[in-house]
Input
Amino acid sequence: MSRNRLLFIISICFLLIMPGCATDQEQDSPVTEELNLINPMGPAVIPVAGIESGTISGEDLGLSIQYWNTIDEAIGLLSSGAAHFAVLPISNGANIYASGIDIVLLGVHEWKVFYLLASDNTDFQDWQSLKGHTVYTPTARGQTVDVITRYALSQDNIKPDVDVSFAYAPPQEIVALFKEGKIDFAALPEPFISLALASGKGKVVLDYQDYWSQISGTRLGIPIAGLFVQKDFLDQHPQEAQRVASLLAESTRWANENPDLAVEVSSKILPLPAEVMQGALQRIKFDYISAAESEGEVIRFLEIMQQSYPEGVKKIPDSGFFVKQ
Output
């Protein structure tokens, strides 16, 4: 090899390791602060159990997890910049995005959690069975299981609030009333279904996910909750953002493969009896699916939610809502 050709090859190799010629990963600006992921209290503590336990390690990312109890609390942490990542209900994430807080969806990981519970002395054949009854459901009008129930009734020519009444209360209160025999029907998420059934009374009469699949044609279930990231953080640190997404995906898989360990870890955050959480896991589906792959499922979900309750979904998000990487 000639001396000039050797010098040329050395020059090319040198240029490839210079900062201006680095790979995409090397161009990613360094993160100099601790990353904060906010996660709701409730069943969504299960997928992060692997991270919490240290089994799925993100120590080099400096990732901490903070738990929120109300959506207003989560919005405050996002709007102040205190949270880089957030696990949120999909409909809330879409509304936050529409309000001007620039968060985008990395992936959906909660697909199955809602059921209709009936008392032992109450018959349920189909939606017509709810006529003349009151359905108790958590918190307030507009949450996911409330909207789906109202949509289902309307599709079956049953008038919500006329033929079927609705009552709203904290889920713990609904469980207590159900155990006392004061409620015929309750539309609840897990683990509150298992808490109610722990009394030895009642029965699950409807799987909302099965109903959703029938009406929507979707294959994964209800896109209930997912991982969001601040858009400016994604723009500045795309590699780190994807690593956090991968971390949650791996932690979700770990929880699915190690349910007893996941329950043990989660019980330190969500103080429920282990047998209740183990029962709840039989009726919950966690599976991390990227935003690029789940976009169609999310749009269909939000369209039906908006059709049934426009106040609940302010605007169907544009394609910029979904991280395509």
